[in-house]
Amino acid sequence: MSFIWGILIFEEPVKNITQTGLAFVTLGVGLVGMSRYSKPPKKPISENMEQEEEQTEEDLETAKGKIKPASSNTDKSAALKKPKKYFFFGGKLALTRRQLGIVGAMINGTWGGLNLIPLHFAKKEGFGGAAYLISYSCGSMIVNTGMWVVYFIYFLHRRQYNFAEALESLPEWHWDKLWMPGFLAGGLYSMGNFGSILAVTYLGQGVGFSLCQVQILVSGLWGIIYFGEIRGRETIMKW
Predict the structure, then answer these.
(1) What string of H, E and C letters represents the secondary structure of the chain?
(2) What share of the chain has pLDDT > 70, as a percent?
(3) Residue 68 in this model has a pLDDT that exceeds 60
């Protein structure tokens, strides 16, 4: 999105528009490939897993004093292989975990690519770089506060305008467990975002913000090396 706005709409100068376009296409193909090979492999359902699952259910039924009806291994395997789905809009929309993640990535790519477009107009008024950071932060605070208000109104309507129940329905802060990870994540994001503001200020939307997408490589390497999310030499090489 930032590339399209910078090159096609703002007409920012580049050395060679053809080579720049090819680089953009290469980046898009790379993103698709990284997404394709970051998908975890499907785990086969072994007989031992089926026997353990069946034994566990038998123990539970025995403890309850009930008789477990007979079921075939085929039905059990099909149930285990069936991906979990998340329902939205009263059950009208059902998405798997992967589909939901892809939708979130698309939303992030669309809105994330537009979040520094106002900087283009602010530069004309003499505001750029560090001078733009406070304005950006204030806007983020207002939007986040507004999202919490809308979320609360939603739960207030669902709970038949019971104020106390609506407050209890809001996500918990988990301050005692998440204060350190939260502050670290916020600090790292803010430093990176400040860097992206500098990049867009001095390099433009098309080039500056596109170069910031090296974050994809950095986060991917963390996933491979530290978290072990992608395994197997062949899969890692393709990634």
Answers:
(1) CHHHHHHHHCCCCCCCHHHHHHHHHHHHHHHHHHHHHCCCCCCCCCHHHHHHHHHHHHHHHHHHCCCCCCCCHHHHHHHHHCCCEEEECCCCEEEEHHHHHHHHHHHHHHHHCCCCHHHHHHHHCCCCCHHHHHHHHHHHHHHHHHHHHHHHHHHHHHCCCCHHHHHHHCCCCCHHHHHHHHHHHHHHHHHHHHHHHHHHHHHCHHHHHHHHHHHHHHHHHHHHHHCCCCCCHHHHHHC
(2) 81
(3) no
